[in-house]
Amino acid sequence: MFLCLASLLAALELALADRKYGLFTGGFGQSQAVDRLAERALFLVSYAAAMAMLVITVWWIIIRIFRSRESWPPLFFLTTIVGGAYILLLALTFQLHQYFSDTMSFALMANLGGGSLTDALLFASDEIVLAVAGLALGLSAYIYAYRFLSRRFPKSCDDPAWPACGRLAVAAFLLTLILAIAVPMISSDVKNGLNRTLAWGLFTTAANRLTDFDNDGYGWVSDMPDRHPFNSTRYPLAMDVPGNGMDEDGYGGDLELLPLPPQPPLTEIAGKRPHLILIVMESTRYDVIGKRINGKTVAPNLEAIARSGSLISPVLSHVGFTTASLKSLFSGSLQPASGSPSLFRELKASGYEISVFSGQPEGFGDIAETVGMRENADLFLDGEKLKHLRAFSNGAQGSILIDEKHLLDAFAEAYQVPAKWEKPQFLYFNFQSPHFPYYHKDMTLNLVDRPLPRSEISAANKEELRQTYWNAVAYADQRLGELVVKLKRDGLWDDSVVIITSDHGEDLFEDGFLGHGHNINIRQNGIFLVTNRPGVSANGPVGLSDLRAIILSLLKGEKPVIPANPVLMTVGDLDSPTQIGISEGTSDITSLRLDTGEACMVEQNHCAHADHLSGTFRHRVDRLIRIWGSARWQNRAERKPN
Description:
19 helices, globular, alpha/beta, five-stranded antiparallel β-sheet, 17 strands
């Protein structure tokens, strides 16, 4: 009975996992296949133990709850609760992974929701509404089936009795616990494969809580196992205190602080003050300049401004998510505190009028509050205020997208009186069209005849997806061109510092990923800086947080001096990332996954475990760890109350 149910569920799950990830065969998007005989044997033993533990434990609970071992109800509940729930979870899991690959997690979903898991769920509400409706229908059918069987097969005294199997459940639990501790030490490929399965994931989550003896949030079977289970000061992602002779986080030894540039203080612009027009093109990659699709230029207007002005590419997004990226852009800090210096605060103090025309809600993820956007704006029009004009029916903050046409119409109406330009103006535009799903009904088809519908977005259609994405970028560029024409027609172009940039890049299934914030690489983190002012260049890497200082220099009529400092990148929050990386050259990127210990020289596509490095590779990773630790320490010091 147990064997039959577990075998059916296992066959379904492993078939799906191998088709999606190439779990056993390797292939697209899967660099850690369980493809050797010994690995497969270890995987199957571990997976079987987890499945057996799940099925037998649920059976024991059913027997205890219903206080009956007789007749068909225990079997009915076992097959429906375990089988039905497992199949439902598989369906939900693989539907989410259809869009987000194997990096989907609560942390990632919260980032997609601007820090709110609730809003992230609303972001995918179209799919969730269908799932809830299906669940309601399924529950109704379940109740009907039980009542039908109760009438058809009433219980009687001579019905067979079933054993509770409590000891067997304990044995399966202990075996799975031993394997969960041992597998990561034996094979990272097997650990990676098992983490893609539901029963193993449910067990390791529970087991991690049980083995967290020092209550620091990390146990023996965590994604980041606690190497010091009885010392609450030493655990993964602990703050490494410099100079105390202890390596709290387990990476790089005791922290040796490196000097890092502080957040620039609030600066006021005096004398002649040119207008500032800042345009952020959502999700637009660094390689937009020079990009051609079907022989057509993707961004002719952006390229024209770059030719007559300046281009820095790539600029690196520190986090790869909108909320954190915009905070860095406006504040000049990796992780600014609310109320810290920002372009909005200093330009308001410098006598600028400020107007916001944004296609997204700027309250999303507390962007507006952190950088003082709303409180300093004389005119504030964002996705929330213009919600009635949204391109999609979904009203969740993460899903609101306002077509650039509406932003330009609002700008034309607000600035139709020439006298308004007699005072210095700061105009911030946020163009959202290149955001997932890369198409809405009012978008011009400049590069493709048929955009890929959201329902067809998958790795199998990656070429059509990429063309749809670049068409969305072309549409945003088209609207940029309309803005430039108006500024030049009204004689404002030469009196304005125009800055065009992005918040982060986008992976388009190049490595099996779709979206941003999953991994540190040039596609997800690489963006650009284009300005109408000539002579802006860099001799080293430039991060998004450097743009505030560049903009202030241009407003003061000075040539920006960009120090050649390393650019730090993280997947997740600065204090608790799953991956960290730095760029110290125009193309060199070093990354380290803190959950697995995998270090990479990204530009060389060369990776190895952090414990087995030497030479230049070791030096690059050690420096990465010191820079990350120093940034965390500096961030804590800046946020500490005086």
